[in-house]
Design brief:
The protein has helices spanning about 1-20, 40, 55-60, 245-250; strands at about 70-85, 90-95, 105-110, 115-120, 125-130, 145-160, 165-180, 190-210, 215-225, 225-240, 255-260, 265-275, 280-285, 295-300, 305-310, 320-330, 335-340, 360-370, 375-390, 400-415. By secondary structure, the chain is mostly beta strands. It has a single domain, classed as Porin, CATH 2.40.160.60. The model is unreliable at about 1-25 (pLDDT under 50). GO terms for molecular function: long-chain fatty acid transporting porin activity.
Length: about 425
């Protein structure tokens, strides 16, 4: 009976540690990914009302009606994050992130004058946060990774020369890995490592519209539905040799499950074509991160039952605003530039180092070379996140201090027109 009570207690302790683990990846609020094309990155993603590539599948499927023939695009973005932490007592820590490579594949085909189809395979959400195993916030998070793959078939219809509509299905696959330390010093035991891995799949939809208000002015809008993903996985533990044998009994490998609702997203833009060579677009993006209100994790305990616990997240919806321009120097060369400002969804009461998000400024430049049926786009972005402080909140005084973040983004994509 006493062993059962101890087991139940330690399962609760484990749940608290799991609930404090989350994660993040760059270029959007929360852990959305919008690095879907080097051409779009060069314009700070101001490509909802105009586009000349099949990545329109992601940004606005209605734009597929503007693409002639069959086009295929592949691309990737190198994301180099840097995160620094300074505790209230002066202790410092650096995030041990490596490079990340969210990648994409798009293909489009035009059927006659009015119908088009497209397919995209890309990373729509993701994150990566890696801290030292002995840093002050290790009981909240040491390593957090989420990877998603979105398979997005789409259809587009040109209702009239000035109105087009597109829609698609989103099939999302998700993998997660969350690591942190568990503090057992109260019981005279050493720290143990904890890792939760899981996966899930779900489906949603996207839609878009393109209105050519005049020969020079276009309006575009696109919507992606929220997607609820049920995640099944397991928790396992790294128990040092110095721990008592009882710890291995209390922390066996166990099955677990959770769920996350990825937010609905809305984008809109106005594009103006000053000349045949010069286009500029201003736009906005809304992400409803209020879908991430809480995190519930359920673990199967060592005696066959289940124990669940809840932790509030209370994230809120965010807005981002962008402006981008593209100028074609000649038939071979184009240059691009853009700026984006984005809000972060995390309130002070639930801010924690697994997702050290803050309001962001993105500055971008890009270029594009065309040769016969090939088009190569290169882009660079510098994402500066405003400094953020953590004070005692839901997570207590753990990892209190100042957080500084920035990212370098290098995008490349190659498009072939058949």
């Amino acid at each position: 009976m006493r062993l059962f009570v101890f087991r139940a207690f330690f399962i609760q302790l484990l749940l608290v540690a799991c609930l404090f683990s989350s994660a993040r990846h760059g270029f959007a609020s929360g852990f959305g990914i919008f690095t879907q094309s080097a051409d779009a990155l060069g314009q700070a993603n101001a490509t909802t009302a105009h586009s000349d590539g099949p990545s329109a599948v992601f940004f606005n499927p209605a734009l597929l009606t503007e693409l002639p023939g069959t086009q295929l695009e592949i691309g990737t973005t190198v994301i180099l994050p840097s995160r620094d932490f300074k505790a209230e007592d002066g202790t410092t820590a650096d995030n041990r992130d490596t490079a990340y490579f969210p990648s994409s594949f798009y293909v489009s085909h035009q059927f006659g004058d009015r119908f088009s189809a497209g397919l995209g395979v890309f990373n729509s959400f993701g994150l990566g946060t890696v801290w030292d195993s002995d840093w002050p916030g290790r009981f909240i998070a040491t390593k957090s990774r989420i990877t998603t793959f979105n398979i997005n078939p789409t259809l587009a219809w040109q209702l009239s020369p000035r109105i087009s509509f597109g829609a698609g299905l989103n099939i999302l696959l998700l993998d997660a890995k969350l690591k942190n330390k568990v503090d057992l010093s109260t019981f005279g035991e050493p720290e143990i490592g904890q890792q939760f891995t899981g996966s899930g799949e779900a489906a949603g939809f996207n839609a878009g519209i393109l209105l050519k208000l005049t020969d020079e002015l276009s309006f575009g809008a696109a919507y992606r539905s929220e997607i609820k993903v049920d995640i099944d996985g397991k928790a396992r533990f790294d128990i040092p040799d110095s721990a008592s044998p009882l710890i291995s009994l209390l922390f066996p490998e166990t099955r677990g499950k959770t769920a996350i609702t990825l937010p609905q997203q809305f984008t809109a833009g106005l594009a103006y074509q000053f000349t045949d060579a010069w286009t500029m677009e201003i736009g906005l993006r809304w992400e409803d991160w209020s879908s991430f209100r809480r995190l519930k994790i359920t673990l199967r305990d060592p005696v066959g039952g289940e124990t669940s616990s809840l932790a509030p997240r209370d994230w809120h919806a965010t807005w981002a605003y962008n402006i981008g321009t593209k100028y074609r120097v000649n038939d071979r060369l184009a240059i691009m530039a853009g700026y984006l400002y984005g809000e972060n969804p995390i309130p002070d009461r639930t801010f924690e180092p697994g997702v050290p998000d803050s309001d962001t400024h993105l500055f971008t430049l890009g270029t594009e070379w065309s040769l016969d049926h090939l088009k190569l786009a290169l882009a660079y972005g510098f994402q500066l996140q405003e400094d953020r402080s953590k004070r005692s909140n839901l997570y207590g005084p753990l990892a209190n201090g100042e957080y500084e973040n920035h990212l370098h983004l290098i995008g490349v994509s190659l498009t072939h027109t058949f």
